[in-house]
Amino acid sequence: MPTPRIVIIGGGFGGLYTAQHLKHAPAQVTLIDRRNFHLFQPLLYQVATGGLSPANIAAPLRSILKRQRNTEVLLAEVMNIDPAAQRIDFADGESINYDYLVVATGASHNYFGNDQWSQFAPGLKSIEDATEIRRKVLMAFETAEREPDAERRKALLRFVVVGGGPTGVELAGTLGEISRETLKHDFRHINPADAEILLVEALDRILTPYDPSLSEKAKQQLEDLGVKVMLKTMVTDIQANSLRLKHGESEQTLETYNILWGAGVQASPLGAVLNRATGVALDRAGRVTVEPDMSIPGHPNLFVIGDMSLFLHQTGKPLPGVAQAAMQQGKYVAKLIQTRLSQPNHTPAPFSYYDKGSMSTIGRSKAVAQTGNLKFSGWIAWMMWLFIHVLFLVRFENQILVLLQWSGNYFTRNRSARLITGEHHELLPEVSRAIPAPESAKDRIKDPAVESTQQSRI
Fold first, then answer.
1. What is the pTM of this model?
2. What is the distance between the alpha carbons of residues 300 and 297, in angstroms, rounded to a whole number?
3. Has 72 been annotated as catalytic?
4. By CB distance 3.0 to 4.6 Å, which of 39, 177, 260, 367 could disulfide with 382?
C-alpha cells in the first residue's frame, strides 16, 4: 500500500501543532506555508512598539521540524483546493495530492467593507505590519521634533487605536508607556508625554470576553498611562490626516497621522475557495462551518482549524480566536487522523475546547487575567501573562532571548528595538502629502532685473 500523505496548509499555531503531533504517524506529512517561519502573533505588538525584534518571536519552520523524519516543509502559496481530485494547486502552477488535508491559514484584518482605510490605518497580523507600525509611531515623534506649527505638532502626537480587544488594549497601553517613560529624555523640542492617545471602541466596554469588572480595571489601568478610552464610539471615515468619529448623535473629526487598526478579523481567502469547491457555509467573517470533528460536511478527510474555522457545537457560540484554541484543535485532528489510518471506520468523539483562561497586558506591571471564576489584575496578572507567553514560544533560544530582553526593558524602562526601517525619508508620507511643496529657486525669482542679474552671474 502507498504511504498516505497528510498535507497541512499554514504554519501558525494550528498547523504547526498538527504537524508536531503527527511525528509518529505512518504517513508522509507535508507542511505548506508562504512564509518560511512560524510567528508568535500574541507578541507582535511588542515588535510594533520597539520592545522586541522580529527574530525574537519567529522561528524557521524547517528548523522546528527538522528532527521529524516523516515531515517535509514546502514554501509555496496555495491558490486552489480541489476536494474531488484531492489536489492542491500552487500559485506557481505546481500541484500536490493529498489523502488528508488540514487547512489552518488563519485570519487577517477586517475593515468592515472599508478596505480603502487600510492604507491609512494599518492592522497587526504580520511582521511587516509590526515594522510598519513601529516606523509610523517613531516617525511621528521625529517629525514632531522638527515641526514649528503647534497645531500640526499636536496632530502628529495624536495616536488613535481603533478596537478595544486585546490587540487594541495592548497597543494603546504600550504607546502610553513609550510616550511617558521610554522617550522621556530623548527629544529637545517636544515633550513626548504631551502625546494624546485615544482608544476607540464601538461597544460599551473594552475586552468584552472578560468579566465586566476586569474590563473596568483594564480601563482604569489604561487611563493611569494617559490613554483616553472612548466607548460607544464608531469610526465613520479615515483619511490620510484625519479620522471621523460618531458618538450617539454627535460627530467629530480629529486631525491625526497615526491611526492603528485592531477592530476585527477576516478569515483567510481559502475559506471562499472551500465554499466554491464544496458549498460549505461561511459566516460574515468568512469562517468555515465545521462538523464536531473539525471536518467539512461531506468531506471527512478535509479539516479546517484555527481562526478560519467556525465551531458552534460546544456552546452554540464561536470559539475565541486565540492560540490555545488552534493548538488544541491541531492536537485533536492529528490524533484523529492517526486513529483513522489504522481504523478507517472509527467514529471519533467530538472536539471539546478547554478554556484555560484569557489574559491581556496593558503595561509595565499592568494586566488582567481570567481563568474560570478566578480573576486577577495588576502585577500578579502581569506576571502570569509574562510566564505563559514565554512558555509558549516554540524554541528555547527565543524563550531565553525574550526573557532577557524583557528583564532589561523592565529595569531600564527602555525599548532597545526602536529602529526606523523602510522608506521613511524626512517626514511621515501622510505629512509630506499634506505640506505644500517648497518653491523652487526659479519660482522665487519675480523681478526681471534680479532674474537678469542672477542669470549673468551664472
1. 0.88
2. 7
3. no
4. 367
Name the strand (E) or helix (H) holding 221: helix 212-224
All cell numbers assigned to 295: 471536518
Q: Grid coordinates in use for 192?
A: 513626548
Task: Tell me how far apart the alpha carbons of residues 274 and 308 are, in angstroms, rounded to a whole number.
Answer: 11
Do residue 372 and residue 327 come from a single domain?
A: no
- The catalytically annotated residue of 72, 132, 170, 223 is 170
* Per-residue pLDDT in tens (0 to 9) along the chain, 458 residues: 689 999 999 999 999 999 999 999 999 999 999 999 999 999 999 999 999 999 999 999 999 999 999 999 999 999 999 999 999 999 999 999 999 999 999 999 889 889 999 999 999 999 999 999 999 999 999 999 999 999 999 999 999 999 999 999 999 999 999 999 999 999 999 999 999 999 999 999 999 989 999 999 999 999 999 999 999 999 999 999 999 999 999 999 999 999 999 988 899 999 999 999 999 999 999 999 999 999 999 999 999 999 999 999 999 999 988 999 999 999 999 999 999 998 888 888 999 999 988 999 998 899 999 988 899 999 999 999 998 988 888 888 888 988 888 887 777 777 877 888 876 555 555 555 454 444 443 443 343 443 333 333 33
Element (H, E) at 273: helix 270-278
63 in a structural domain: no
User: 322 and 338 share a domain?
Assistant: yes
